Amino acid sequence: MPGTMPKLVLDASSIDRAVTRMAHEILEKNKGVEGLSLIGIQTRGVVLADRLDKAIESITHKKVSIGLLDINLYRDDLTRVAEQPVIRKTEINFDLENRTVVLVDDVLYTGRTVRSALDALIDFGRPKKIELAVLIDRGHRELPIRADFVGKNIPTSEDEVVHVHFSETDKKDEVIVETLGKR
Predict the structure, then answer these.
(1) Sheet containing strand 7-10, strands side by side
(2) Partner of 155 at 20 to 30 A CA spacing, among 55, 60, 138, 139?
(3) What 8-state DSSP symbol labels residue 74?
(4) 0.85 exceeded by the pTM?
């Protein structure tokens, strides 16, 4: 059975509004930017972390520490993902001790990516607190992980795929859901 036409869930302005709202929520929960860091999970989590950083700066006129994290070597499904996984850059140029780290990713699905990110992050130090921000929470958790900050909850079925496109990586901003054919 062939897949269906992709359904637009968020357009560029909806993504902008979600990012701005999430930035306000992060600031409110953490009572400002003191001791706050954002760490984006490669690849689109990095883009979202950068956008959250810009939104936070426009609200507070202060910068937060920002880093990027590659979790490929920490995955429990590494052999299933690719024969030769692409290892990207990890860059955390600040001490994690006594900081609140907001891990940032584009889509929260099973929770396995976040589990891998937590393992990777702990190898860099021991933050005071770790929070999770995602643009899309699509459900279907396999691990007891939930996001603290969510741009949009999208109930999905197992045969649907959520695609987040950012202009920085994909030349346009949108979130679409596509139904795949039965596997």
Answers:
(1) 7-10, 174-179, 160-165
(2) 55
(3) G
(4) yes
